[in-house]
Structure formats: structure tokens, C-alpha cells
Design a protein that fits this description.
It is built from eleven helices and eight strands. By secondary structure, the protein is α/β, with parallel strands linked by helices. This is Hydroxymethylglutaryl-CoA lyase.
């Protein structure tokens, strides 16, 4: 079954103007009515690094989870953030950005890869103790612009280390929009065959005209977990000077529906969310 993860946190985090807490909550409450598997709603990180997300706890207090099956995911960058997130019963998943690029790991979390792997182990232990599940994002999972080493074999080595920690959800992130359909297909196929018990996801940053062949390649290789953001807003502010946007959820839904997938979404509520997105991201 296809799982759609809507990522308003990723869409908002790089915006220079602060979005009022009540507006964020209203938007998230509308998204919760649509029927997405998971909402990546906020992050517990340094407000100096990502000032847009400094009100995540306050937003969470305003969310109405009654009548929705959508789960909540919060991004953390260190053990302290994970401890803060674990205080909230409403949060199901913690997400950690682990990079296969040493340069980007430093830029994104101010850690070396080795230190980041240690943080992953500590956060995984915390999740298991507190009834949460850790989603690990392998950023720069399809290459990087910094000249750091990259190969599918390198990525597989990271996957093995995460499997050894009993992490069960790993999402490959194309942070700078450089992945080709061929690389997406081969990376998923290789890892899905090697680790059949792992749920592998895809977090793309891409230009709209390149989306269909990339999604088709992932589907053909067996991927069933996809991240998106309405209207394709967002991108990683830590990646490089120019942002490459997220997958536009409405385009992703259209692609999947044409292929006959029943996504279990309330499309009338989705239409309302699209209207609200135009206000939130004006």
C-alpha cells in the first residue's frame, strides 16, 4: 500500500518571514483531515538554526487529532531535541537527517558523520524506550555537489549500519535534486533486495518537469513511501544557495491515481488544503 507523507515542516522551514502559530496550526489541522499516512509537522531543533520552527510545541498543542488516522513526525538533530519530542504523546515518529556527505552533515547538523551515527544510536534507544519510531533520512542519498565520496555501495554501507541498530524506516533523500531515474531505480532495487524487512522511502527535491520519470522508476523498483509538499513549496535551506523544491503533492497524487492506486484520501478536504496553502505561503 502506498504511504504518502505530507511535509509542511519542510515547506515552511526556509521561509524568511515567520508564519503565525495559529496559521500553522490551522493549516496542519486541514492536512490532518485529508488522510495522509503521516504529517511531517515540525521540528525540535535550535531556533537559531531554523527560527521558523521555534513554535513547534505550541503548534502541537493546537492540533486536533480526533477522527484522523494520520500520524505525526517531528524532525530532530540531536539527543536534546529527541528528548523534547518524546515528551509529547501525540508524536509517533522522530526523523533524523543522516548524511552520506561529510560536508553536508556538518552544514545541516554541525556534526561529523561519526558523531551523527552516535546520535542516531542514542535517539533510537530513546525512541524504543518511549514508544516512538525513528525514521532516518539518508540525505545526499543520490550524490552531492561538494566533491565528497559517493557511490551506491557507500549508501548500502550506511543502510547496513542503520539495520544493525534495528531502524526499520529509511528514506533516501535527493537533497539537491540531482537524482536520475536510473540511479533511483537501482538504489532502491539493490537495497530492497538486500534488506527486505526495511521500509524504504523517497524524499525528492526536484523540478516539476522531472517528477514523473523519477516516481515511475521508484515505483518500478518497489518503493511505496513518498514524501511531498503541497504546491512543491520548500527545499533544504542548508543544501546550497538555490533551493530545489519538494515534490508537489498534487502532482504526485495525480501520477499515482492514473496508475490506479487507491490512496484513501478525502479529495474534497485536499482541495481545501490546497486553497489554504495559497494563504499560508503567500
Amino acid at each position: 500500500m502506498i504511504k504518502l507523507i505530507e511535509c509542511p515542516r519542510d515547506a515552511m522551514q526556509g521561509l524568511p518571514d515567520f508564519i503565525d502559530t495559529s496559521i500553522k496550526a490551522a493549516y496542519l489541522n486541514q492536512l490532518l483531515q485529508v488522510g495522509f499516512d503521516t504529517i511531517d509537522f515540525g521540528s525540535f531543533v535550535s531556533p537559531k538554526a531554523i527560527p521558523q520552527m521555534r513554535d513547534t510545541a505550541e503548534v502541537l498543542d493546537q492540533l486536533d487529532l480526533f477522527g484522523t488516522h494520520s500520524k505525526l513526525l517531528a524532525i530532530v538533530a540531536n539527543l536534546r531535541g529527541a528528548e523534547d519530542a518524546c515528551q509529547f504523546e501525540q508524536i509517533d515518529y522522530l526523523g533524523f537527517p543522516l548524511s552520506v556527505s561529510e560536508t553536508f552533515q556538518q552544514r545541516n547538523t554541525n556534526k561529523s558523520i561519526q558523531d551523527a551515527l552516535q546520535a542516531v544510536e542514542e535517539i533510537q534507544n530513546l525512541c524504543q524506550t518511549n514508544g516512538k519510531q525513528l525514521v532516518t533520512y539518508l540525505s545526499m542519498g543520490f550524490g552531492n555537489p561538494y566533491g565528497d565520496p559517493y557511490s551506491p555501495e557507500l549508501v548500502a554501507g550506511f543502510v547496513q549500519q542503520l539495520v544493525d541498530l534495528d531502524i526499520q524506516i529509511i528514506s533516501f533523500a535527493d537533497t539537491t535534486g540531482s537524482a536520475s531515474p536510473e540511479l533511483i531505480g537501482s538504489l532502491y532495487q539493490i537495497n530492497a533486495q538486500a534488506f527486505p524487512a526495511i521500509e524504504f522511502g523517497l524524499h525528492l527535491h526536484t523540478q516539476a518537469q522531472d517528477l514523473a520519470p523519477k516516481i515511475n522508476a521508484a515505483l518500478a523498483a518497489g518503493c511505496q513511501r513518498f514524501d511531498g509538499a503541497l504546491k512543491g513549496f520548500g527545499g533544504c535551506p542548508m543544501a546550497k544557495d538555490e533551493l530545489v523544491g519538494n515534490v508537489a503533492t498534487e502532482q504526485l497524487i495525480a501520477l499515482l491515481q492514473v496508475k490506479g492506486y487507491d490512496l484513501g484520501l478525502k479529495m474534497d478536504e485536499f482541495a481545501e488544503a490546497l486553497k489554504l496553502a495559497q494563504v499560508v505561503f503567500k
